[in-house]
């Protein structure tokens, strides 16, 4: 079992004073695509704006797998992933006032922000150029304790099932944020491409938002399931004629897949001033024709996870409307089995590690 001291400049703004320490028991990979093994490291005394969380559960996001594979070239090893954390506050810095020891809280993709840039000061912390990802440059929630800047931590509402809430903090944030940021009307017509880890939550949020909801799925077996998850309609995305028949129908299309599709066919299903919004990280050029988009005053946009304020709004909305992801659960000690389950594409639909 390895023991490391996490450098103080990788904690919370580099402000911590190395005095009393806390030993964290975690699971780490020491190389790209490696297996997770027990791992220990030390946290120095918390900075004034820091919160330490005793991890009760942690969702596994596809981004954790990407970090394990070093697919983005930003991974540092040993790597402790995990950025869909649910747990109880066990320690706070002296400047923390909005959460107390004993509160159940959530932590998502970001564990810290500069708090001084124009984006932070205008409430768009998620766009802060100095934002600190929970699992890049620091250790995440595949552990018994995780530390974060207090601004990135949100209380979990009493009415929300905490055992399933972890995936809301990243995947749920990703699909909920566009409804807030884009000003989607409750009477809008919204379509979701891909009914998986992101897409199934998008269906639930869109239905609860009040929208007419359509699912695009390549799996016939998922069409009925999509309706159970919140879709009013389902369209076979492998059928060009079925897509063509939906011309001019949608105010918003949320794409949750990361593969290239016939984007011009989907653009044709938008209403005037409609929007194709990307949540899935498509890496190929889109090849969208500008002139039809111009005449329809349509838009193609994308977004990351939302700000701390949107996270609080999302959690309150999910509690009020009973929106929770469909989850499968593994003990934290079975993290390798859980990661392989995700890698195989068998997850239905989000995986949660329980401590």
Descriptive account of the structure:
This protein is of the alpha/beta class and 355 residues long. The protein folds into 2 domains: 2-167 and 325-354, Quinone Oxidoreductase, Chain A, domain 1; 172-302, NAD(P)-binding Rossmann-like Domain (Rossmann fold), CATH 3.40.50. It is built from 11 helices and 18 strands. It has helices spanning 62-68, 118-121, 162-165, 171-181, 199-209, 220-229, 240-244, 263-267, 290-295, 308-321, 335-343, and strands spanning 2-5, 22-28, 37-43, 50-60, 85-92, 104-107, 110-112, 132-133, 145-149, 153-155, 189-193, 212-217, 233-236, 250-255, 270-278, 299-302, 327-331, 350-354. The strands form 4 sheets. Strands 4, 5, 6, 9, 10, 17 and 18 form a 7-stranded mixed β-sheet that branches. It has a 6-stranded parallel β-sheet with strand order 13-12-11-14-15-16. β15 (270-278), α9 (290-295) and β16 form a beta-alpha-beta unit. α4 packs parallel to α5. The radius of gyration is 20 Å and the shape is globular.
**Class of the largest domain in CATH?**
Alpha Beta
Radius of gyration: 20 Å
Unreliable segments of 5+ consecutive residues: 1-19
Task: Give the terminus-to-terminus CA distance.
Answer: 19 Å
Helix content: 10-25%
CATH superfamily of the largest domain: Medium-chain alcohol dehydrogenases, catalytic domain
Question: How many strands?
Answer: 18
Order of helices and strands: EEEEHEEEHEEEHHEHEHEHEHEHEHEHE
The average pLDDT value, as a whole number, equals 94
Using the coordinates shown, work out and report the CATH topology of the largest domain: Quinone Oxidoreductase, Chain A, domain 1
* CATH architecture field of the largest domain: Alpha-Beta Complex
Give a quick account of the main beta sheet: strands, pairing sense, barrel closure.
Answer: 7 strands, mixed
- Number of helical runs? 11
Structural class: alpha/beta
Shape: globular
Strand content: 25-35%
Count of domains? 2
